[in-house]
Design a protein that fits this description.
Helix content is 16%, strand content 33%. The chain has 324 residues and is α+β, with helices and mostly antiparallel strands. Strand 14 and strand 15 form a beta hairpin.
Amino acid sequence: MFSFLDLKKENFIIFNHATKIHNLIVSAASFEENHFSHKIFATFCNSLGHLHGQSYETTKPIYLSRSRFSGMRKFKNEEKIEEHLSKMGFDIVHPQEHSIEIQLGIFNPARPVCGFIGSAFHNSIFSYSPKGIALCHGDRYSSNFYLMDKINNAKISYVQTPSLQKNSDHYGDMVIKDPEHLSLFIYDLIKSRIWENSNSQKTEHNHGVIEKYKLISIHNKFLLVEKRTGIVTSKNEKTDDYEYLYVNFTDKNNAFIESESKICLTLQGESRCLRKIKYDIYRDGNFVSFLNKTQNRFLSSSPDGKLMCDRKELHEWELFKLVK
């Protein structure tokens, strides 16, 4: 998607054609996967939903099922969830069995949509201010959902799924151990209108800060975040387009990283896009290292300035210095 309201000086292209010089204006992207989003992207997608979408006609809560979907992620016993929720007054919807027009209109601010987090939730962008519940496994989900929700006034709560376990070592092979319990869990969340509670959205870490420092990589570069995109990087010095990243210690073993103005951070290897990212701390003399305990990966900085949270072991690039 392209936003013609977000023109940048660097997007002017000059080329030679038939001995004449032409200036072209190429717009910047309004949405970049896992990196950033602009309000115009939601406005554009909302207009597509308004023009081409057909509302799924029901006043009941909707449960988006994957039980007939041939994709990678499977949830054993999901059919039993459908049976229980249907008796509780839910409409069971299999998105792939409907037209594109209907899929554009499944999300609606007038009634909630719930289901396991996945591609079907991307369709929420075609309706302004949708509401519902996304069932997650662990606390890992694509930051694309967060980015779309923030620009679309979405009221979607992301919750941990009880009684959901891995069924095998194969990615996405899950089993619902107690379908009745999970069905009641979903029903209670819908009844309580959990999406109206701001604390139910993607939660951030609100610990008391003991110490606060800037960060320098082992390559003597400051850790910064680009204001426009939220992408985390390291550079020799800060410019007007960047802000410093700070590490805030809550105790000697835990800390979170954030920018001065609480920009939503985008970091390769992190599954979430948050204003604060929590880490476990490892100390080595004058250096510290940061471990994402959920993913069991260390934060790393390469000489070219790229930052990633993808290292299984501690080496030199995983070391950082603290500066007041």
